[in-house]
Amino acid sequence: MSGKTGKEEGSKIRIRIQMHSMKPSLAMKRPRPPPLFSASTKQTSSTPPPKSLHQPKTPPISSRKPKLHTEWVPLNLSQSELSLPLTFPTGQTFRWRQTGPLQFTGTIGPHLLSLKHFQNGDVSYLIHSSPSESAAKLALLDFLNVDISLAKLWDVFSENDSRFAELAKYLKGARVLRQDPVECLIQFLCSSNNNIGRITKMVDFVSSLGSYLGNVGEFEFHEFPSLERLSVVSEEELRRAGFGYRAKYITGTVDVLQSKPDGGAQWLLSLRKLDLPEAIDALCTLRGVGPKVAACIALFSLDHHHAIPVDTHVWQIATKYLLPELAGARLTPKLCSRVADAFVSKYGEYAGWAQTLLFIAELPSQKALLPSHFWDIKEKKPAKTKDGNGCSNDGNYN
């Protein structure tokens, strides 16, 4: 027994409680993401979010505290198998952010991870938060499609196309991702008649409806919300957040998916087992999904490696190098099919991967890095798309 009176002990407890209550609360501000095609451009956390994108009314279903990790682990992928700058900021996904030199951060399910090129070019990963380190690694390997050897594909493509062989020397490691189909679908619904910066902000808003996983650098990351979570978001709320007419596409598609007997997520996964035309037709039953968006979803999430999303970039590539007789023609749905067939005829069952590299080579950021002889062929003015579902050279989805 210490001999201290109960009165003295009570006074000390009250003092400690008062001191604890005086600690300031820390409010985390949601940073504004940089434009996806300008990976070197950074926004400061003091930049206020645009007025058109409000924070969601309804909070995430859960806000569990993340488990933090601090060690970089080699992924055993060389830069020729995975180039982060040629994979993430090129329009496949709008949820990964550049968080350091040659470092990109994003979420895969409940896992928050960073990928980074080290001095020798090889890629390592860091798990910032995850309920299971082993599950996080498996999810990452699946997301990166590591079972597919990029070097072997590039050899096959190069044998059939001398220009591809030259481009591949400068653009090694442009890998096609294997995304969650729900996440991929919602992202590309946001892309309709839109530009890269605004698509990113919309996807960022949708992501904020999911469970908070942590902050890396100046960015806040969330698990992508489930269909159940998205089903309670109203069209009006999305319109107030700046989605415009795309709001009805998202709410309408979520409603249709929620009505599927085995659930919308399972229905989307089942499309991996269908032939490509059947998968495209099934996706086009969803509100706001046309052939081009369906092809993006099929290529980037449903294992249809020969899917060809035909936009104005791809149309220009086709008319310059594959179908020059169509130069100057108006792009119609029938010609879209002809372009897709031309890519498959030349590059085979992984034609979508070849098209991805050729698409990346046409981006202004990459053109500046390539020798001038790649552009000896005179470029013609891009044809207008009839269905308004393409992507122009300035990063606008038309």
UniProtKB/TrEMBL annotation:
InterPro entries in UniProt: DNA_glycosylase (IPR011257), HhH-GPD_domain (IPR003265), HhH_base_excis_C (IPR023170), OGG_N (IPR012904), Oxidative_DNA_repair_enzyme (IPR052054)
E.C. numbers: 4.2.99.18
Gene3D superfamilies (alphabetical): 3.30.310.40, Helix-hairpin-Helix base-excision DNA repair enzymes (C-terminal), Hypothetical protein, domain 2
Residue ranges with Basic and acidic residues bias: 1-12
Chain residue ranges for the region called Disordered: 1-66
Keywords recorded for this protein, A-Z: DNA damage, DNA repair, Glycosidase, Hydrolase, Lyase, Multifunctional enzyme
Domain of life: Eukaryota
SUPFAM superfamilies, alphabetized: DNA-glycosylase, TATA-box binding protein-like
Domain HhH-GPD: from-to ranges: 190-363
Reaction equation(s) it catalyzes: 2'-deoxyribonucleotide-(2'-deoxyribose 5'-phosphate)-2'-deoxyribonucleotide-DNA = a 3'-end 2'-deoxyribonucleotide-(2,3-dehydro-2,3-deoxyribose 5'-phosphate)-DNA + a 5'-end 5'-phospho-2'-deoxyribonucleoside-DNA + H(+)
Family: Belongs to the type-1 OGG1 family.
Protein name listed in UniProt: DNA-(apurinic or apyrimidinic site) lyase
Organism field: Hibiscus sabdariffa
Lineage, uppermost ranks: Eukaryota, Viridiplantae, Streptophyta, Embryophyta, Tracheophyta
